[in-house]
Amino acid sequence: MTRVPHLSRRGLLAAGATAAALPVLAPSGASAATAASARATGKLRRTPYTFRNAEIVGGGFVTGIVFNQSEPGLVYARTDIGGAYRLDTASRRWIPLTDWIGWDEYGHTGIISIATDEIDPDRVYLAAGTYTLPEWDPSMAAILRSTDRGRTWKTTPLPFRLGGNMPGRGIGERLVIDPNRNKILYLGVRGGHGLWRSTDHGKTFAKVTGFPNAGNFVIDPTDPDGYNGDNLGVLQVVFDKRTGRAGRATRTLYVTVADKDNILYRSTDAGATWERVPGQPTGFIPHHAVLDHVGGYLYLATSDTAGPYEGFKGDVWKLDTATDTWTRISPVPSTSDDNKWGYSGLTIDRQNPDTLMVSTQLLWSPDCILFRSTDGGASWTRAWDLDTNSERTLRYDIDISAAPWLTWNASPSLPEMAPKLGWMMESVQIDPFDSDHFMYGTGATIYGADNLTDWDSGGTVHLSVRAQGLEETAVMCVISPPVGAAHLFSGVGDVGGFRHTDFRKAPKMYDSPTFGGTPALDYAELAPHTIVRVGHPTSGWTQHFGISTDSGDTWTPSRSEPAGITGPGVEDQAVAISADGRRIVWSPAGAPVSWSDDHGATWTASKGLPAGAPVRSDRVNPAKFYAYGSGVFYLSTDGGKSFKATAATGLPVAGNVRFKPVPGHEGDIWLAGGTTKPTTPTPYGLWRSTDSGTSFTRFEAVDQGDVVGFGKAAPGATYPAVYTSSRIHGVRGIFRSDDAGRTWIRINDDRHQYAWTGNTMTGDPRIYGRVYFGTNGRGVIYGDPR
Question: Is 269 tagged catalytic?
Answer without folding.
Answer: no
